[in-house]
């Protein structure tokens, strides 16, 4: 609402040549009428704080790039007559309606070449249409048996002429009348099947007619996929509702088609539809009978009607052979010998119809009626395997999402045990109403760590694109994926609980890394994955154990699950970190595969028991190793020695501490809580494409722990108290750190320097131990004739702690 001050109102009222009218309809506009009634033109002006004075709307709004009536009011100056008649609104302009126009040839090109990415799906689409025609006849013949009297057999027959590049597909379905040809083939994207389903639903009193039907079509563009490979298509059809047979013909790139009545008696069919594809020169290879048979088995193997293909066959027979003249003369001389006619085996070639879709969709049957042998045979035929699967699961899901499925666990990994990152496999075959849609998935139905699972999934309703090649992301697909994953876990758990332990050992040997990858990538299923894991341990070096078995063997006072990561069982069981735990009989898991450590860290805990890496600092063994008086005495005795060692090592270590995990080793180097362990640091350095800049950041702190009960540490402590600056003591500390570095699993930064220190220490310890006094002067004399004789000193072994 535009507000005016009292002074402004008074000024306007004193103006005798103007009258003020406030528009009630537009609360922000002020109208003024001009005294001159002869001016017919109307001028619209507005006032704004952005400009000085009056502005013309057409010029100023364009200049300011603003829309009229956006945030400011404006006033209209017009004649008195125009002002009086402003209350009557002019009639609105007439609205004209137009229909969308399309260039048919261009639209057909888009439909054919843009919807389908694979040329070979044309046969799948045509077979699906034929199956729908047979299904329609079957439905309608229930109430009208006269419809199916002309031809009793309901089947599909495909004839391939390789020489001429022609494919002919014939079905004995419902056929089409002349008007149905115009409606179904002459109208793009009109689905005759969808139209039939709508009518059937109304006929059944609005009940769900799509629940149990087998009709496939829904988009009305499947027929035009024939132009993917053909430049001319002929459709000859005979409906039981009509006495005449009609022929529809269309060509690629043409915006028109022709329909005529069939007059050739040899081409008359009792009922149904015959589609003839005249293939393009580049696609005549599709007319090979063997290739047609292969496409039928791949895409339409489980269509409910029999599909016959015209195939070359042969049988063996014996035929007589003409005798050799020389052999005949010799046989004639032997009158007593009985002559026998000579024959040979030849293969007689002939052509005949062969049933192509012999395998039945056993997932449609009740699981109680299917035997294990039938499941195994279906697995071998469907996935071209020669071994029986380890396990199978046949189930039906109802409710929000309805589908049927059979899942298998293969006996061996087809890609090799080390390939666990390829999630794009062809192990899951997706069907919609028994018609194969795709087996090329990128994690839509299974996560990549379960990509080894094989099986079939069949659903009546799925969110597919028009070409029925791509499964679109939707809530239905997510629910389906969740249920498939759950069934896969139940199947694997069944193998692990089997009485035959070798089955799960075989499974783990092939797919154990997949499940460990799942621990890293799928946090939602940690509770399902953890019971399936298997590891070696300090109490089971030959047979793997589960986490449940570990928890059962835990001591009463043990509160955590201990593990150590290494490159082999041998190095793991000899690591100095285990000494105190083995002494206390605490079981430790051996993580010997590169993925193990990351998988365990992703789990964090199992049954309220935290996973603890014994190679990291602040190891707490709970009540299993609590002796506070001894710890206090050790800290008092060796506290200053630890500071002295830290000063010598400098930035190599974060601190020097008294160890609670050592019993026989003098020292050990442990990692910080939040950094990489020695094993992980080794693995990251070995990555060929690893970023070396992140190594220093993730390396973490290192803590040097000493064993106060070891003789070496006692001697180091004595050296500190007697002479902290002793050079030999300093060298001993350096060598002790390098030795701990290697024994703890770290890689020395300068192996040559470490070798030099060891050789120097060996030279000191072994100097003159085995050489005789006479041998040394002779050696020096050989090196120099002027060298003086040197006295050899025999070093006796030093006795330390009762040992030499």
TrEMBL record:
Presence of keyword Ribonucleoprotein: no
UniProt cross-references to Gene3D superfamilies, sorted A to Z: 3.30.230.80, 3.40.50.11260, Heat shock protein 90, C-terminal domain, Histidine kinase-like ATPase, C-terminal domain
Pfam families noted in UniProt: HATPase_c_3 (PF13589), HSP90 (PF00183)
Location of the region described as Disordered in the Swiss-Prot/TrEMBL record: 24-45, 319-340
Stored PROSITE patterns: HSP90
Coiled coil ranges: none
Keyword Transferase: no
InterPro entries listed in its UniProt record: HATPase_C_sf, Heat_shock_protein_90_CS, HSP90_C, Hsp90_fam, Hsp90_N, Ribosomal_Su5_D2-typ_SF
Keywords noted in UniProt: ATP-binding, Chaperone, Nucleotide-binding
Highest rank taxon of the organism: Eukaryota
Bias type Basic and acidic residues, positions: 326-338
Biased composition (Polar residues): 26-39
Transmembrane regions listed in the UniProt entry: none
Family: Belongs to the heat shock protein 90 family.
HAMAP family named in the record: HSP90
The protein's name in its UniProt record: Histidine kinase/HSP90-like ATPase domain-containing protein
Native organism: Brassica rapa subsp. trilocularis
């Amino acid at each position: 609402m535009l507000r005016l001050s009292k002074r402004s109102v008074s000024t306007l009222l004193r103006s005798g040549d103007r009258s003020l009218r406030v528009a009630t309809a537009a609360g922000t506009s002020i109208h003024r009428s001009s005294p001159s009634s002869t001016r017919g033109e109307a001028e619209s002006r507005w006032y704004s704080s952005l400009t000085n004075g009056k502005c013309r709307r057409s010029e100023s709004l364009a200049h300011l790039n603003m829309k009229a009536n956006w945030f400011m009011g404006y006033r209209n100056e017009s004649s008195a007559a125009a002002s009086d008649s402003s209350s009557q609104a002019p009639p609105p302009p007439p609205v004209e309606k137009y229909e969308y126009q399309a260039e048919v040839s261009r639209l057909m090109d888009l439909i054919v070449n843009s919807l389908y990415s694979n040329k070979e799906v044309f046969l799948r689409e045509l077979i699906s249409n034929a199956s729908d025609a047979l299904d329609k006849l079957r439905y309608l013949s229930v109430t009208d048996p006269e419809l199916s009297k002309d031809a009793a057999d309901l089947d599909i027959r495909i004839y391939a002429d390789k020489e001429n590049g022609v494919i002919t597909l014939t079905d004995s379905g419902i056929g089409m009348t002349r008007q149905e040809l115009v409606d179904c083939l002459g109208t793009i994207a009109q689905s005759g099947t969808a139209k039939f389903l709508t009518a059937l639903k109304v006929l059944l009193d609005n009940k769900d007619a799509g629940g149990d039907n087998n009709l496939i079509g829904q988009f009305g563009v499947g027929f035009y996929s024939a132009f993917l490979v053909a430049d001319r298509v002929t459709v000859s059809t005979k409906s039981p509702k009509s006495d005449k047979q009609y022929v529809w013909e269309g060509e690629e790139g043409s915006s028109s088609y022709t329909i005529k009545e069939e007059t050739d008696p040899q081409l008359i069919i009792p009922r149904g539809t015959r589609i003839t594809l005249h293939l393009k020169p580049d696609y005549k290879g599709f007319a090979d009978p063997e290739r047609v048979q292969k496409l039928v088995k791949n895409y339409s193997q489980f269509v409910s009607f029999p599909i016959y293909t015209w195939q070359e066959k042969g049988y063996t027979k014996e035929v007589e052979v003409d005798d050799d003249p020389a052999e005949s003369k010799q046989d004639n001389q032997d009158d007593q010998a009985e002559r026998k006619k000579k024959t040979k085996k030849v293969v007689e070639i002939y052509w005949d119809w062969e049933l192509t879709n012999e395998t039945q969709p056993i997932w449609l049957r009740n699981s109680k009626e299917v035997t294990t042998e039938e499941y195994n045979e279906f697995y071998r035929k469907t996935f071209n395997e020669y071994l029986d699967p380890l396990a199978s699961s046949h189930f039906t899901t109802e409710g929000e999402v309805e589908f049927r499925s059979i899942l298998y666990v293969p006996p061996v990994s087809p890609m090799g045990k080390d390939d666990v990152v390829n999630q794009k496999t062809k192990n899951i075959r997706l069907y919609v109403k028994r018609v194969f849609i795709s087996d090329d998935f990128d994690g839509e139905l299974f996560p990549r760590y379960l990509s080894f699972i094989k099986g079939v999934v069949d659903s009546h309703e799925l969110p597919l694109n028009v070409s029925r090649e791509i499964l679109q992301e939707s809530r239905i697909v997510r629910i389906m994926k969740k249920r498939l994953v759950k069934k896969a876990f139940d199947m694997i758990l069944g193998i692990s609980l089997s009485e035959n332990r070798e089955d799960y050992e075989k499974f783990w040997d092939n797919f154990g890394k997949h499940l460990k990858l799942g621990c890293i990538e799928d946090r939602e299923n940690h509770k399902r994955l953890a019971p399936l894991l298997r590891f070696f341990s300090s109490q089971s070096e030959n047979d793997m154990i589960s986490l449940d078995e570990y928890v059962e063997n835990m001591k009463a006072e043990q509160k955590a699950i201990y593990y150590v990561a290494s490159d082999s069982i041998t190095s793991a069981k000899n690591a100095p970190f285990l000494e105190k735990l083995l002494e206390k009989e605490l079981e430790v898991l051996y993580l010997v595969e590169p993925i193990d450590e990351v998988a365990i860290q992703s789990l964090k805990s199992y049954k309220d028991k935290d996973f603890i890496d014994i190679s990291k600092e602040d190891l707490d063994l709970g009540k299993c190793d609590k002796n506070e008086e001894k710890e206090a005495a050790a800290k008092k005795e060796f506290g200053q020695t630890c500071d002295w060692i830290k000063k010598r090592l400098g930035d190599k270590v974060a601190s020097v501490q008294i160890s609670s995990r050592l019993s026989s080793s003098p020292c050990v180097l442990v990692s910080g809580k939040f950094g990489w362990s020695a094993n992980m640091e080794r693995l990251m350095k070995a990555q060929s494409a690893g970023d070396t800049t992140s190594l220093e950041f993730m390396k973490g702190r290192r803590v040097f722990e000493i064993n106060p009960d070891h003789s070496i540490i006692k001697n180091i402590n004595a050296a500190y108290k007697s002479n902290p600056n002793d050079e030999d003591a300093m060298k001993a500390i350096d060598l002790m750190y390098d030795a701990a570095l290697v024994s703890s699993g770290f890689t020395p930064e300068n192996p040559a320097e470490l070798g030099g220190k060891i050789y120097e220490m060996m030279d000191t310890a072994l100097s003159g131990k085995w050489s005789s006094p006479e041998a040394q002067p002779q050696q020096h004399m050989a090196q120099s004739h002027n060298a003086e004789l040197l006295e050899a000193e025999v070093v006796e072994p030093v006795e330390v702690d009762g040992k030499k």
